[in-house]
Write a structure and sequence with these properties.
The protein is α/β, with parallel strands linked by helices and 395 residues long. The chain has 16 helices and 11 strands.
């Protein structure tokens, strides 16, 4: 089924705090820094903001995964909002963007501040086991599921992601040499990003020489925890046209989930990615060939490969061959990916960082890492049963 229902919503401003490992600033300070930068970038003031959203919201405030929710930031900025959104359920890290866009499309507000704050670097200083799945809270990942995993020593998400990677390797002949092109490409991009956590050069041999964490995934297949906050301003299209920046229109959204909400009872070679992709492409006349860049979730490198297939940039099972050699996905290639270094080298800004980077490229602000064509961007975030995508077009 094909839909035609434009949201008439655009991104009008972006902001990002420092990205630290760890940062000396508190979660609230980081959030305020990012929010005020985004508001000013859009040519607005806090009094113009009448909506706010983030993911996963206030339901596990104080946890390094979500130390600040919309209630705290609304109070800190003294916002007067007509609509507020937050909560774990939804299409993963892009939930705040999708919900905020729908609120504007429904006429509930005109300018929505969407943000994502994470302080996992500071959290691990206090508790090195903070990332263990045994420590998950109901607000983060629904403890109902994790209780069945931890007795079998599934203490980290990589233990599950490795199963997906091994199945992809088995079914389609994907190799470590192919998968390694994703972290190597991300590191090359991070070298040109002043905020990136890891900027030193990395070769494919360096990748292959890194230790196995959960076979077949290696150390450099894992994202880099950090402290950071990222914010964007969504505006009604008519308001965005009068703003400081050329509007970046939300052309289409993907958020479908037709499988069980589970990390194990889903397709082991695509997760939710194909369902999200089919929904997004059904809502636009554009095709994968029209996309200039892809900012794709790289909590683990295998997820990026699955998003490439799920969003139709290559056929299912062909991801390894598509990225082989790294030429197609390089900044000068036919489909540059994760141009700020992604989460594998830039830092785990958890979803919203991809939107920030896409806009940075589309507004020509990326400096040395600027790509030649940046009019259309595909963004995807999440893994397992959590997944959402955006198709952005610069007006």
């Amino acid at each position: 089924m094909t839909f035609s229902s434009p949201m008439n919503v655009a991104i009008s401003g972006i902001g990002q705090s420092e990205v630290g490992r760890p940062s000396s600033r508190s979660a609230l300070e980081l959030s305020v820094d990012a929010a005020l930068e985004a508001i000013a970038d859009a040519g607005l003031t806090p009094s113009d903001i009448d909506g706010i959203a983030c993911w996963p919201g206030d339901n596990n405030n104080g946890d390094p995964f979500s130390p600040i929710g919309p209630l705290a930031l609304t109070s800190a900025l003294r916002l007067e909002t007509n609509w507020m959104g937050g909560g774990y359920e939804g299409p993963g890290p892009l939930t705040g963007v999708i919900n905020g866009a729908m609120a504007i499309a429904a006429g509930l507000c005109r300018h929505v501040l969407v943000f994502r704050t994470i302080t996992e670097a500071s959290g691990r200083l206090r508790d090195r086991g903070a990332a263990s799945l045994a420590n998950k809270t109901p607000g983060r990942d629904s403890s109902y599921f994790w209780q069945w995993y931890t007795p079998f020593e599934v203490r980290s998400a990589i233990n599950m992601m490795a199963l997906y990677a091994q199945r992809h390797f088995h079914d389609y002949g994907t190799t470590s040499e192919q998968l390694g092109q994703i972290p190597v490409t991300c590191r090359a991009n991070a070298a040109l990003n002043p905020k990136a956590i890891y900027r030193e050069p990395m070769t494919l041999d360096d990748y292959l020489g890194s230790r196995i964490i959960s076979s077949p995934l290696r150390l450099f297949d894992c994202d880099v925890y950090c402290d950071a906050s990222t914010a964007i301003i969504l505006s009604a299209a008519d308001a965005a046209r009068n703003g400081r920046n050329p509007p970046i229109r939300i052309e289409a959204v993907g958020a479908a989930l037709h499988q069980p909400w589970s990390w194990d009872q889903i397709s082991t070679t695509e997760m939710v990615t194909a369902e999200v992709g089919r929904m997004m492409w059904s809502r636009t006349d554009l095709k994968p060939a029209d996309v200039d860049m892809a900012q794709l979730y790289d909590g683990f490198s295998i997820l990026t490969l699955m998003w490439l297939e799920g969003l139709g940039f290559c056929p299912k099972g062909e991801g390894g061959r598509f990225i082989e050699g790294g030429h197609r996905i390089a900044r000068t290639g036919e489909l540059p990916i994760n141009t700020n270094g992604g989460q594998l080298s830039g830092g785990r800004t958890h979803g919203l960082g991809y939107v920030h980077e896409a806009c940075t490229q589309m507004w020509g602000r990326a400096g040395e890492r600027q790509i030649a064509r940046a009019g259309t961007a595909a963004i995807a975030a999440g893994g397992g049963p959590l997944g959402g995508s955006l198709l952005l077009v610069r007006d």
